[in-house]
Amino acid sequence: MQIISNIALISINETLVVQLISFLIFLFIINRVMIRPLRATMAERDNYIQMVREDILDSKKELEEIIDESHQEEKEIRQAALQITAEMESLGNHEAQDIMGVARKEIAAVKKQTQDEIERLLAEAMTSVRKEAETLSVSIMEKILDRKVSP
Cα 78 to the chain's mean position, in Å? Predict the structure, then answer.
């Protein structure tokens, strides 16, 4: 009787080849069923993330452009406001000078009119005083001389 001792844990025979073939078939099926769709999904996700990053960068650039435009518009509006303020101030000064000129002319006219009135009244008063003085002097002379004097 012969004792066959089998010490090895794995024996190389037909079952190993069958197991190897079934493992390769399993890997092929897993690759087709699970890994390829998973890789496709991962690629789609990477594309989506890349598109989102590009959209974010585009949005940031657009936001910066809008901010720059708004700052430019604000600067232009401030300059326009300052220009309008300067124009209004200039116009106000011009109108004030015109009003002052008109007032000075009116004052000069009133002063001239008053001066003319004073001169006229003074001339009338002088004429009246002369007539009275003449009448009075004739009267005094008549009294002194005791006769009538013709002027």
Answer: 4
Token digits for 136?
């009075």
* pLDDT single digits (tens) 78-104: 999 999 999 999 999 999 999 999 999
Q: Give the whole-angstrom CA distance, residue 10 versus residue 120.
A: 151
**Cα of 126 vs its chain's centroid, Å:** 72
Q: Is the dihedral of CA 89, 94, 97, 102 positive or negative?
A: negative
pLDDT of residue 10: 65
Contact in structure between 16 and 10 (CB atoms under 8 Å): yes
Q: Which two tokens stand for residue 53?
A: 């990053």
The model carries a pTM of: 0.46
Residue 4: the pLDDT is: 54
